[in-house]
Amino acid sequence: MSGICEGRVVVVTGAGNGIGRAHALAFAAEGAKVVVNDLGGARDGTGASAGPAQAVVAEIVAAGGEAVANTSDISDFAGAEALIGQAIETYGRLDVLVNNAGILRDRMLTNMSEAEWDAVIKVHLKGTFAPAHHAAAYWRGLAKAGEQVDARIINTSSPSGIFGNVGQTNYGAAKAGIAGFTIIAAQELGRYGVTVNAIAPTALTRLTEDLAGFADEAATAKLAEQLAPEHISPLVVWLGSPASAGITGRVFSVTGSSISVAEGWANGPTVDKGARWTPTELSDVIPDLVAKAAGNADMSGVRK
């Protein structure tokens, strides 16, 4: 196989199903050697099976590509280290890390348990940090040894994180954290030849098929095609390729054939008294500032 990622070595976490599976297959179709990571658990993170990762590897190999399976828990620091180590030991290098693994344990804030909060934060946030840490340490070592590095980290945020969604304070907080992580990691790793970007995808997968906004229409073939996970992967593959070298620190919203650059927090209307405010004075100031400010975006990324 040949393509835009010919010869590159790519790790994709959570690649046994849905968007991650589509990424793995797309990278392989573009000539990459892929480490397919998946713990093989349910969408709430429970259970484990080698089956999903092995099945994706079998698909890649059957199509003439190169891939190996990995079932490490990427939210475990040692497991993440083993994953990155396997890529380097198997293929002699690592060029791209796609942090995609995730779980859902949705609940309204007043009903959410500590366990439901902790599990989601661990898989998404620590499961992004841990592989990125070990990959970045590897690339920094190469750069300090004088080698040319052209590496990529692509993280997975969500509209729930950058725009907000009811019932997902745990998931949304984690995904917002990933967006912030992406911006800072890009600032830190650029000196080593590493770019860091993120996507905020909308797709029909086992994680989203019964969520509000999807459940009533999920059975329609038209919607299934419009929101197929395969629509997300071309951007991720491009971001993982040498062609994307000048792009870093950005979050991209991706829905079907639509790609947007998400524009982050920025100061809007401002007032400066030149001295300390009293709480009473702010009763006349803050409502006016808010009235002048642009509204928050809805889940589609459109400002209200």
What does this molecule look like?
- With about 300 residues, the protein is α/β, with parallel strands linked by helices.
- The protein folds into two domains: about 10-260, 3-Layer(aba) Sandwich (Rossmann fold); about 270-304, no CATH class.
- Helices cover about 40% and strands about 15% of the residues.
- The protein contains nine helices and eight strands.
- It has helices at about 20-30, 50-60, 75-90, 115-145, 160, 170-190, 220-225, 235-240, 280-290, and strands at about 10, 35, 65-70, 95-100, 150-155, 195-200, 250-255, 260.
- Strands 3-2-1-4-5-6-7-8 form an eight-stranded mixed β-sheet, sandwiched between helices.
- Helix 4 links the parallel strand 4 (about 95-100) and strand 5.
- Helix 4 (about 115-145) packs parallel to helix 6 (about 170-190).
- The N and C termini lie far apart (about 45 Å).
According to DSSP, the number of beta strands is: 8
Order of helices and strands: EHEHEHEHEHHEHHEEH
CATH class of the largest domain: Alpha Beta
The CATH superfamily of the largest domain is identified as NAD(P)-binding Rossmann-like Domain
Enumerate the strands of the largest sheet in spatial order, edge to edge or round the barrel.
3-2-1-4-5-6-7-8
The first-to-last residue Cα distance is: 46 Å
As a whole number of angstroms, the C-alpha radius of gyration is 20 Å
Low-confidence stretches: none
- What is the makeup of the main sheet? 8 strands, mixed
Could you say how many structural domains there are in total?
2
Can you tell me the CATH architecture of the largest domain? 3-Layer(aba) Sandwich
What would the CATH topology of the largest domain be? Rossmann fold
Question: If you average the pLDDT, what whole number results?
Answer: 92
* Count of separate DSSP helical elements: 9
Class by SSE composition: alpha/beta
Helix content: 40-55%
Write down the overall geometry: globular
